[in-house]
Amino acid sequence: MVTAMRSVTGPYRGTNQDSVGCSGSYVFVADGVGGHAGGDVASWTITHRLMSALSPVGRRPLDAEHLRELIAVANADLSLRVRAEPELRGMATTFTGLFCGEGTMTIAHIGDSRAYLVRDGQLRRMTRDDSLVQALVDAGVIDEAEAQHHPRRNVIMRSLAGSATDAQEMTLLTVPTQVGDRWLVASDGLTDYVTEDELGGLLAGGDVEVAADRLLAAAEAADSRDNVSLAVSDVVATADLADAPYRYLGAAASPTRGAVADLSR
Predict the structure, then answer these.
(1) Which candidate, 89, 142, 139, 148, places its Cα nearest to that of 114?
(2) Confidence band for 265, pLDDT divided at 50, 70 and 90
(3) What's the pLDDT band for 255 if we cut at 50, 70, 90?
(4) Which of 168, 176, 236, 249 is deepest in the core (most CB within 10 A)?
């Protein structure tokens, strides 16, 4: 995959609690849960620990249950960190990732970050929010338009928080993918402020860098009040991209961790 990433703190937040990571075969967004101490620590940990666990896999096929196990190992590090620093108790993160195989894409998802697929000009949401508002939509209490502006739209029901059961609650889905598909993964700092109709238009045409710039500009124009993180990935035929170096943005970008502190043990 060819991927362009963006992650900004935004004018309303003091720190960026989102982490974005990618290689030639993987891309993911982790949004540290707002209002909890250590959201940036949680997203940093999941992003880096998972990328490290994926390194030995290389180009070998990665089935969904193996991926679940790797995410569980990364998630376990959150509980280890809390034991060492009890003030971080309650930290958690969403996680939405794409894992490209031979003609397939495996989506791993928990929380309210999202994945979208654009194929033949049509935008399709590939994840379901693990959120209170989504539960209200499913129950017919509110519709999608009301959900976009609901005052409790940021309340999530599931996340990665270091519990042994977290990874089992993740949604893993493997779907066919093909050259020419365009994928988006994004935090709610984008999707809460830019409608899906707008997303479809912004993702149409141009290369991934152009599309990523459009999306970020749209979130900023909509006065997003959250960190905004996103990655746009095109599926291409070049196999050499599978060996592309890891890249990080947001909280994950700082090797010294800054506000995230030193996670090395």
Answers:
(1) 148
(2) very low
(3) confident
(4) 249
Alpha helices per DSSP H over 88-150:
132-138, 144-148
Q: What SS3 state is found at 207?
A: coil
| Annotation: CATH topology of 2-260 | Phosphatase 2c; domain 1 (3.60.40)
Prediction pTM value: 0.92
Closest by CA to 232, choosing from 178, 157, 181, 188, is 181
Residue range 206-227, pLDDT digits in tens:
999 999 999 999 999 999 999 9
Instruction: Please state the domain extents for the chain.
Output: 2-260
Give the percent of the chain with pLDDT over 90. 69
Q: Residue ranges of the alpha helices (H) in the chain? A: 39-54, 64-84, 132-138, 144-148, 188-191, 196-203, 208-221
Using a 10 angstrom Cβ sphere, with 0-12 exposed, 13-18 middle and 19 or more buried, the burial of residue 234 is middle
- Among residues 167, 150, 187, the alpha carbon closest in space to that of 79 is found at 167
Handedness of CA 20, 73, 26, 63 (dihedral sign): negative
Please calculate the CA angle 155-158-164 and round it to the nearest 5 degrees: 150
Instruction: Give the C-alpha separation, 213 to 171, whole Å.
Output: 29
Contacts of 63 (CB under 8 A, 6+ apart): none
